[in-house]
Design a protein that fits this description.
The chain has 37 helices and four strands. Helices cover about 70% and strands about 5% of the residues. The relative contact order is 0.02.
Length: about 725
């Protein structure tokens, strides 16, 4: 029992000792992410650089005698046969097996493997290619021929077999055998690249006549006295003709082109054929033939399919034609292009502008008018101003053309009347109840003034203001009357304008400036009073500034002060206070400095409750600049005491969804006047001062050289 107790006691002691040996986990003080992060890509790159995952190469096996070699061959063959037995359809296993036998120079065994593989899948192209390449590599030419014959007989539509077979025969110097293979291939009517390969083969051996006969078969294949089309494409005829041209058979080449034109007829005309025919004749210096070919083709080919034909005809005329012919071609080509564009999209007004610019420069007035009438007939389908902005310029250009290009003047009443009709038709077309174009009304009025018809101009502008009043119309009408020095009419127009838009500060200012120029100061002041009394204004600060500047120009300083006071009743903006102070400073009176300082005092008191501390700082800085220039030492010291302290603070940010978005640092201003009213801030300042004194005392106590009295102090 005692032994058991001792055993248990020893066990408990060891357990306690074990517990004591467990190291304590260190507490992580900073749980923020590290500045340099290690990515998975970096780990993989370092593993590759240090070659941590590379396995050592397997040991090389050395074979020393024949029995060991036979044993190795037996094992490998057994492995290959097992792989084939598992899945006979995987051709890669057969090919690897055959290539291994080939590497051992066991050609007969390799043939046997390839034959067994062909029994499994005779449609596999790679298998035939590897089989034939093995025979060719080992110089077994007859075996290779046998394989190629079997391949092209079994799979005649695989072009690669034919290419390899003909190439092998040609490399062996068996030109007749290669030609025979090509003939067998052509009986299958292959794609055009095969025909070109056959032609190039004959040309390599200077057999031009044979190549020509191949071209004939290439284009038209006759069988049983019936015309069978093999490749009746235009480019094939062109290649045939260029072949004849290359070998200097120009008559044959021309005959080929003529046969092609006759073959395709007028139903299947192609511009590429005629371009090639014309270039051939151009090379032969037959310029009249070229011109006839181009004109014949342009008269019969649809315009949308003759772009390249137009281009080449233009280049030809630039080289060998006269100036008039070149211009006619260019204009007709561009007119055709624009006609196609406007036909595809009649509301493409940019295309109409380009088209009209072309016809204005080259054709008579009647044709231009016809195109303009066609263009303006395409009215935008939606009555929204953004859809009419490009369309309205068609009318403007039309009217300007009639007035300027058609030589409309006061002497030619018919042309002037036509221009007037264009303007009136446009103004009748516009839906004035929904929107209008002030530009059109003003252009019409200016036209009538140029025609010395002032009543019609006034009538048009009056109708525009009555139907669809706009700021631009009023301004244009007033400007017209100002130029005519009709000031009473200007007053009436300004009155109507301000009835229409009483919130427009610019109009009030212009009206008052007009009265000022005319010398009616009381009337101008009354206009300003009416303006600032409006309940809604678009730019009130501009209006007040203009009114104040007006009173300053009249040297009415007391009225100016009253204006500033009235403005300060509406807004306590810092710029108004600064402007009032600068006015008092520039008034030029004896009491200007006390008045200016009093304004700053009032402004500072008024802005103590302002939340925008930057504005208060701006006021104090302006006040300090004033005191630096005109003040005494006492006033300077006083303003320095009023300047705030700039401190850095943090505030919590919130995202749009209400979640925390971190903290933001910002600068705040602590004004001495506000600090005196807040005991918490005063207590904090005293605490900071005490802490500073404590630090200085500790530093002095650590220095033994200092005097005791100094330490106590």
């Amino acid at each position: 029992r005692g032994g058991a107790g001792a055993h248990r006691g020893g066990k408990m002691a060891s357990t306690a000792a074990g517990k004591q040996r467990i190291p304590k986990v260190a507490k992580v003080k900073n749980k923020a992410p590290a500045e340099v992060q290690i990515t998975a890509e970096q780990l993989l790159r370092e593993a590759k650089e240090r070659e941590l995952e590379l396995l050592p190469p397997p040991p090389q096996q050395k074979i020393t005698d024949v029995e060991e070699l036979n044993d190795y061959k037996l094992r490998k063959r057994k492995t290959f046969e097992d792989n084939i037995r598992k899945n006979r359809t995987v051709i890669s296993n057969w090919i690897k097996y055959a290539q291994w036998e080939e590497s051992l120079k066991e050609i007969q065994r390799a043939r046997s493997i390839y034959e067994r593989a062909l029994d499994v899948d005779y449609r596999n192209v790679t298998l035939w290619l590897k089989y034939a390449e093995m025979e060719m590599k080992n110089r077994q030419v007859n075996h290779a021929r046998n394989i190629w014959d079997r391949a092209i007989t079994t799979l005649p539509r695989v072009n690669q077999f034919w290419y390899k077979y003909t190439y092998m025969e040609e490399m062996l110097g068996n030109v007749a055998g290669s030609r025979q293979v090509f003939e067998r291939w052509m009986e299958w009517q292959p794609e055009e690249q095969a025909w070109h390969s056959y032609i190039n083969f004959e040309l390599r051996y200077k057999e031009v006549d044979r190549a020509r006969s191949i071209y004939e078969r290439y284009i038209l294949f006759k069988a049983l006295a019936i015309l069978v089309l093999v490749h009746p494409d235009v480019k094939n005829w062109i290649k045939y003709a260029r072949f004849e041209e290359k070998h200097s058979y120009f008559a044959h080449a021309r005959k080929v082109y003529e046969r092609a034109v006759e073959f395709f007829g007028e139903e299947h005309m192609d511009e590429h054929l005629y371009v090639a025919f014309a270039k051939f004749e151009e090379n032969q210096k037959e310029f009249e033939r070229v011109r006839v070919i181009y004109k014949y083709a342009l008269d019969r080919i649809p315009k949308q399919d003759a772009q390249n034909l137009f281009k080449n005809y233009t280049i030809f005329e630039k080289k060998f034609g006269d100036r008039r012919g070149i211009e006619d071609i260019i204009v007709s080509k561009r007119r055709f292009q624009y006609e196609e564009e406007v036909k595809a999209n009649p509301h493409n007004y940019d295309a109409w502008f380009d088209y009209l610019r072309l016809v204005e420069s080259d054709t008579d007035a009647e044709t231009v008018r016809e195109v303009y009438e066609r263009a303006i007939a395409n009215v935008p389908p939606i009555q929204e101003k953004r859809h009419w902005k490009r369309y309205i310029y068609l009318w403007i250009n039309y009217a300007l053309y009639e007035e300027l290009e058609a030589k409309a003047s006061s002497d030619n009443l018919e042309d002037a009347e036509r221009t007037r009709q264009v303007y009136q038709a446009c103004l009748e077309l516009l839906p004035h109840k929904k929107f209008t174009f002030a530009k059109m009304w003003l252009l019409y009025a200016q036209f009538e003034i140029r025609q010395k018809n002032l009543p019609l101009a006034r009538r048009a502008l009056g109708a525009s203001i009555g139907k669809c009043p706009k700021n631009k119309l009023f301004k244009g009408y007033i400007e017209l009357e100002l130029q005519l020095r009709e000031f009473d009419r200007c007053r009436k127009l300004y009155e109507k304008f301000l009835e229409f838009a009483p919130e427009n500060c610019t109009s009030w200012i212009k009206f008052a400036e007009l009265e000022t120029i005319l010398g009616d100061i009381d009337r101008a002041r009354a206009i300003y009073e009416l303006a600032i009394g409006q309940p809604r204004l678009d730019m009130p600060e501009v209006l007040w500034k203009s009114y104040i500047d007006f009173e300053i120009e009249q040297e009415e300083y007391e009225k100016t002060r009253n204006l500033y006071r009235r403005l300060l009743q509406r807004t306590q903006h810092v710029k108004v206070w600064i402007s009032l102070a600068q006015f008092e400073l520039s008034a030029g009176q004896e009491e200007r400095l006390p008045r200016c300082r009093q304004v700053y005092e009032e402004a500072n008191k008024a802005m103590r409750s302002c939340e925008e501390k930057e504005e208060r700082v701006m006021l104090l800085e302006s006040w300090r600049s004033f005191e630096d220039e005109f003040g005494t030492d006492a006033t300077k010291e006083r303003i320095d005491k009023l300047m705030p302290e700039k401190i850095k603070k943090r505030r919590k940010l919130q995202a749009e969804d209400g979640s925390d978005a971190g903290w933001e640092e910002y600068y705040d201003y602590i004004f001495p006047e506000d600090t005196a009213n807040q005991p918490n801030l005063k207590l904090l300042a005293m605490a900071k001062l005490w802490k500073k004194q404590q630090q200085e005392s500790e530093a002095a106590a650590m220095d033994p050289d200092k005097d005791v009295d100094e330490i106590q102090t």
